[in-house]
Structure formats: C-alpha cells, structure tokens
Amino acid sequence: MEENERQAARPQLRVVEAGKAYGRFTALDRVSFNAARGEFISVLGPSGCGKTTLLRVIAGLEPQTGGEIHIGGREVSRLPVSRRNVGIVFQSYALFPNLTAAQNVAYGLSGRTMDRARQARRVDELIELVGLTGHGRKYPAQLSGGQQQRVALARAMALSPDLLLLDEPLSALDAKVRVMLRGEIRRLQRRLGLTTIMVTHDQEEALTMADRILVMERGRVVQDGSPHEIYDRPATPFVASFIGSMNFIPDAQCVTGGTFRKGPLVLSAEDGRGLPPGAKATVAIRPEDVLLGVNGEAGANVVLGKVQGLEYRGAGYRLTLQLVLYGEERPLIEAEVSTETLRRLGLREDMVVSLTLPPERIRIYPATHGGHA
Fold this sequence. Notes:
- The chain is of the alpha+beta class.
- The chain contains 10 helices and 20 strands.
- The two termini are about 50 Å apart.
C-alpha cells in the first residue's frame, strides 16, 4: 500500500482507553473510539456524563490519568494543547472584546512565520468562508451571537487544524439561529473535510449534524453508531429514553420466543425472539410507532386505549392513552398523530380507540439492562 493510501486508511483520531479521575470520582472510564478523516462525531449525553471532560482530554486542556490520545498518527497524550494542532470552539465564543473580528481571527495565526500580506489574505479568506464579509472591522459587541460564533469558528480554523473540537457551540444561541448555524457548520465541515468532534446535550443537534454519535453515561460510551442506529435501535433503556421519547412496559415475561406478557397484556416482538421462556424484560416502543384506529380493529398487538390527554405540538398531537384491560395492569401509552389523523378519527378525551403496536417496531431490553432512565 502506498503512503497516501496508508494515511487515508489511518484514523485521524484514536482514543485508547482514556481515563480521567478526580480523586475518587471517575469522570472518564476507559473510553475508546476512532474518528476517520473528515468524519463528524457528536458526543452526546446529560450533564455530568463526562462528555466535556473527554473533549478537554483530547484537546490537552486536561491531563488524562490513563490511556492514550493519537491525533494525525502522533501520540499526543503528554503534549500541551499548543502542540496538538487542534482548533477549539467554546460555547461562550471566548473572543477578545478589544479586538475586531478580523483581529480575533488573526490571533489564531500568532506565532507563525507569516508575513503581514499573507496573513491578511488568510484572514480575509476565513472571514469570507464563514459568511462574514464586510464585518471584519466590527468588534464582538457589535456582532450578534451567531456572528460571534462564526468568528470563533474562523479563528479555530486559521491554522488548518488536524482536528476541530466544538464544545456546545450553539447552546447560547436562540432557536432559529441555532438551526441555521448548525447547517452552515455542517456544510463548511464537509467542504473542508475537517475531522470534527462536537460535544452536545441536544439530541436534535447530534441527529442532524453527525455522521456518528457516541452516547455517554457515567463516564462511559454506552452506544456508538450512526444517527439512524442510535434512534432506531437504541442499545439500552437509557439511550432509548435520552434520544427522543420512548414508551416502556417493565417487568414483562417472555412466554415463548418473541411473545411477552405483562398481566393481561400480551405482545409479540420480533426483537425478542432469542429470549428463553420465563425471561424478564422491558418492552419499549416509540410514540410515533404506535398506530391509532377506530375501535373494533383486530390483528397482532392490537389493544384498546382510552384517551387521557391531548397535547398540541404544532405539526401534530401527543396523546396519552390508558390501555383498556381487565385486571390491575393498565399501562399508559403515548402516541403521536398528525393533525389530519386526529381530525379524521375525531379524537377527543375519554374516547376509546384501537392501538396497534407493530411487532417489528418494538424493542426488547432483557432484565440485565436494568430499569429505564
């Protein structure tokens, strides 16, 4: 294999069993993953899960207490941030208020042997690249939040880094600007082929921007996969509840391969065919996968539900329904329906309807996974 082919095949980032402890508290517990050249990876999780610590360890802002970090084929585990050739964009922008936008971008070039004319051309290129032509002479206070974040992004890219690190870069912006800027960042990242690691707690951000998502819980990566894999086949109840919404029916018992009983409720699930009879599991299904029809329908996994509440969500409604069953077990199920479906079925509170829980859309979590989050 030729040298350029070897370089193309080599991961741009390798994190090997990275650990970080603060006294007795373990913030990172042997985290390992690779990032290919040009790949966009989102590290997603709730507050305190270790995602920001992981980013800081990769950047060299925090020394790890175990494992290795490799960037561009070099082990950088003991190198300071200045020698890792990474660009970092923080949530707070971290711009110098007494410098113009152009001067902030130029600051990223400080320390490099580059004449003034060449530096000015590079700054102009970056300012244009992030869509701020004509704003180079403005100070941060004269720019909107979105514009300030573009300046921070241009500064991070000034030295053509091997790795771009984004620490909750959009969380301080209002909703409309956030949606617009995440699309711009993604297009820019693809255009430049920059290997990018973004930390976020925003599910929508991760799902729309990333090639791959690492979901973290208590210092560990609990699932690593594409956005579709993470959403459609969440590995644990925690992932299922953190990414989107999920209905859980705990403590169901496997009757035969693929059939589960919880009190009077009996459901078939393709995902549970490998479980032995008697095994305990949590049955789960997303609200948008629950199908509603008129009372009286029949078929696999069809049950009756009484509408307990309707929540208007603009494009549709979120319904809360109590299953109509004999006995004490009457689980609550949430379903999402379009406005058209709600009108067509005439849905209203206290109405009894048919619910279909498609066997192919049900996820089964064996009792070893523990309860849902």
